[in-house]
Design goal:
This protein is of the alpha+beta class. Helices cover about 15% and strands about 40% of the residues. The chain contains two helices and eleven strands; from the N terminus they run H-H-E-E-E-E-E-E-E-E-E-E-E. Strand 6 and strand 7 form a beta hairpin.
């Protein structure tokens, strides 16, 4: 009670217009604090359209390789670059290469939440050939599923060139974690 009395004595020393201005400031401050929408603070509270407010990362999944110009027994290693961070598929266990086929296992990677995901791929075929693309896929909405075409490269005296016909495509997705 003595605190309230001290506040009233303090306010008595001001003219009426100053008291009204201070009261209006308090009312506006309390009104804004009560009525304004809030963003939760703390871990697990970042947002992205379509994901809600409690997701800190999304799952980037590589589902496999669809060969269109690869030998039937080809083994591959895929490098994915998502917002500048590199992921290698396969990277679980002691497996360095995966045989291309319809039953390839998928692999998931945690990717930091972002407003946009810039994704590109490169692929190496066991035995030396390399496959690339000039394309960077830009994704702004999650979930997303897509295919990324890769083209063989060839090295000659003039440098490295890329073929005009794709040899494979990578099936991938971005999803909210379950």
């Amino acid at each position: 009670m003595s605190t309230v009395e001290a506040v009233f004595k303090f306010l008595e020393s001001y003219p009426a217009w100053a008291k009204v201005a201070m009261l209006a400031g308090v009312v506006i401050t309390v009104g804004v604090a009560v009525l304004a929408p809030r963003t939760p603070i703390g871990p697990g509270t970042e947002t992205n359209p379509g994901l809600g407010t409690s997701v800190k990362m999304v799952l980037f999944k590589i589902h496999g390789v669809s060969p269109s110009g690869l030998p039937p027994s080809a083994s591959v290693r895929v490098t994915a670059i998502v917002n500048g961070k590199t992921f290698t598929y396969p990277s679980l266990g002691a497996v360095d290469w995966l045989d291309v086929g319809p039953t390839m296992s998928s692999q998931s990677f945690g990717v930091s939440l972002a407003a946009q995901y810039d994704i590109r791929f490169e692929m190496e075929v066991k035995g030396g050939s390399r496959h690339v693309s000039q394309e960077t896929v830009q994704i702004t909405t999650v979930p997303y599923t897509g295919d990324y075409r890769l083209f063989p490269t060839k090295v000659d005296g003039a440098g490295v060139s890329r073929a005009s016909i794709p040899a494979a495509s990578i099936r991938f997705s971005l999803e909210a974690p379950q």
